[in-house]
TrEMBL record:
It comes from Tanacetum coccineum. InterPro entries: PB1-like_dom_pln (IPR058594). It comes from the Eukaryota. Residues 4-99 form the PB1-like domain. This is PB1-like domain-containing protein. The lineage of its organism: Eukaryota, Viridiplantae, Streptophyta, Embryophyta, Tracheophyta.
Length: 154
């Protein structure tokens, strides 16, 4: 039986650009066993430590930013992945409670950051760095041309 030390981030909110969990509290749960646990059992345990019932639970890969390492816990398989990262991090891992019902993973998708390995293209050996511009970036070119802005009136 493996016991974890989990830092529970709760009663706060996620904000984006970059993704952060703010205005919350932390509670360290020592000596907790997640082995064989399903999502409902996880909810029952965590609900004892927080005000109100969180809508969703997330964990983040240790050593990464939230935006790059956050994962929603939706299934027993997700709990197993959560435990695996905990094993790899000396039996310590952070758990985040989302109380308001918004989709944090949508915030991650909307956050303006390049995904790992998307920023370099290695097709041209003559270039040291070629940058691929992600689809979500609106590229505008500035020129020396005169621009006339017409007044619009009703």
């Amino acid at each position: 039986m493996t016991r974890f030390m989990t830092t529970l981030h709760h009663n706060g909110v996620f904000i984006q650009n970059p993704l952060k969990y703010v205005h919350g509290e932390t509670y360290v749960i020592k000596d907790i066993n997640f082995e064989g646990m399903n999502v409902n059992q996880l909810r029952e345990i965590i609900d004892r430590f927080v005000n109100g019932s969180p809508k969703t639970y997330y964990y983040a890969k240790p050593g990464t930013t939230l935006v790059r390492g956050i994962t929603e816990i939706k299934s027993a398989s997700d709990i197993e992945d959560f435990m695996t990262l905990g094993y790899q991090n000396g039996f310590k891992i952070d758990l985040y409670a989302e109380h308001h019902g918004y989709d944090v993973m949508e915030m991650v998708r909307d956050d303006n950051f390049p995904m790992p390995n998307e920023h370099l293209v290695e097709d041209d050996p003559d270039e040291n760095e070629c940058v691929t511009i992600p689809d979500f970036v609106d590229v505008q070119v500035q020129s020396d041309d005169n621009v006339v802005i017409n007044s619009v009136s009703n």
